[in-house]
Specification:
By secondary structure, the protein is mainly α.
């Protein structure tokens, strides 16, 4: 008959008490920003990056400003 070893005991120790447990649900957003993941034509990205560099701003700031101007123009 095969000699099977008993399972090893956990070495982690006892869990912390519930009063000391910290959850992450009440954490505020770090910067109030969210990732936007979308595909654009390569030429559009190049133009956006070039324009942002010429203006001394980020691509994100440029897009936010452009959307604001578009909303003003369309009366939204």
């Amino acid at each position: 008959m095969a000699n099977i070893a008993p399972p090893q005991k956990s070495r982690k120790g006892a869990p912390p008490p519930l009063t000391r447990t910290v959850g992450n649900l009440s954490k505020p957003e770090p910067s109030g920003q969210e990732t936007l993941n979308l595909r654009v034509p390569l030429q559009f990205k190049r133009e956006l990056k070039t324009l942002a560099a010429q203006q001394g701003t980020s691509m994100t700031e440029l897009i936010v400003e452009a959307i604001g101007l578009l909303r003003e123009q369309r009366g939204v």
